[in-house]
UniProtKB/TrEMBL annotation:
InterPro entries in the cross-refs: Amidohydro-rel, HutI, Metal-dep_hydrolase_composite, Metal_Hydrolase
Record bears the keyword Zinc: yes
Gene behind the chain: Amdhd1
Required cofactor names: Fe(3+)
Record protein name field: Probable imidazolonepropionase
Amino acid sequence: MAGAYGLLLENAEQLVLVCGRGEKYLLQEGAGRLPVLPHASLVVGRDGLIKAVGQADAIRSQFSGALFDRVIDCSGKCILPGLVDAHTHPVWAGDRVHEFAMKLAGASYMEIHEAGGGIHFTVEHTRNASEEELFNTLKHRLERMRLAGSTLVECKSGYGLNLETELKMLRVIERAKRSMDIGISSTYCGAHSVPKGKTATEATDDIINNHLPKLKELKLCGEIDVDNIDVFCEKGVFDVDSTRRILQAGKDMGLQINFHGDELHPMKSAELGAELGAQAISHLEEASDEGITAMARAKCAAVLLPTTAYMLRLNQPQARKMLKEGVIVALGSDFNPNAYCFSMPMVMHLACVNMKMSMNEALAAATINAAYALGKSDTHGSIEPGKQGDVIVINSTRWEHLIYQFGGHQALIDYVIVRGKIVYKNEKCGIMSSY
């Protein structure tokens, strides 16, 4: 096939498609048997989209005479879709390293919260930070996520709790979305906690009457384009009725519902999400059996966060029950001051060990299903012609090493590629040809 193309990745030992028939998500059966091509090659066009994938000999024949801007010999290596992190809180100032010692000494999340720590500690520092400071720290954090293989990341606001600071955070996310080589799905999370001096009802009214109309105005004039709306539905924070009001108002202005639910206490958040047509619900450590069934019927994704359950010593989400019931299971790092993890490979490892997921299921959850949770599985999450050319190349003859090597991604990942552009190259990998 004559012509000029952006990138050829050739002769990979294994190429993990994840999906091969345009699936928007994978349930238990599909996730358990991911399609893997041996001795395969991949072509990405100059437009950043995948043009062809197949056996190396077939691709070589199909594109004989074609010109490529870059060619990478992937002999002895594996190609996988770029990882998708479906839940992060990456915009904030200050840190809470001192709280880690309190947790280790037995203090609960809510005890720290009620003592003036937790979210409110971060809110104070974030309100005082400049927009430039917040952007620089966000840029650094996203770069670290990208080094670990993440090419699409959900980014939340939520450490402002007043309109001024929430907008400051969303402007920072928008700036990163427009300037960085990484996919971003932005989430308004002004209902992350009840601001000091307000009741939950007052905070709910403020969000519905002031925050959301301003977001709609800024979206219409092209300043800030928010994708999702989030609420921390939890005992002592926003109850089910307040959560319903905020999420419905967000949905009415075109935002996807993607919220925190059933983390510390059973709140019937899963049932609420299914009722409202939520795209996804995160956490779900305390989800009820009825809620799990309702999510499966509603095709509402469960974004499970194994780092949070691990660090806060919570009950593990019922991943196996969810998979058996037909829930679309996705994964996220929950990167935030309370769960400081940039690495989706480590998240997948924890999901396998602590939540009893298989490696195939974990990879599906960190690619196509995480993309579905963000409403982006038509463009991300698998290696298929027409999708965005987001892939990673690992220096191993078996793709499972990405999960098996706990904390080993720094040496294992050779290339991270976004829209066909090499955004990270491990200094130790081979010389790249250029034509």
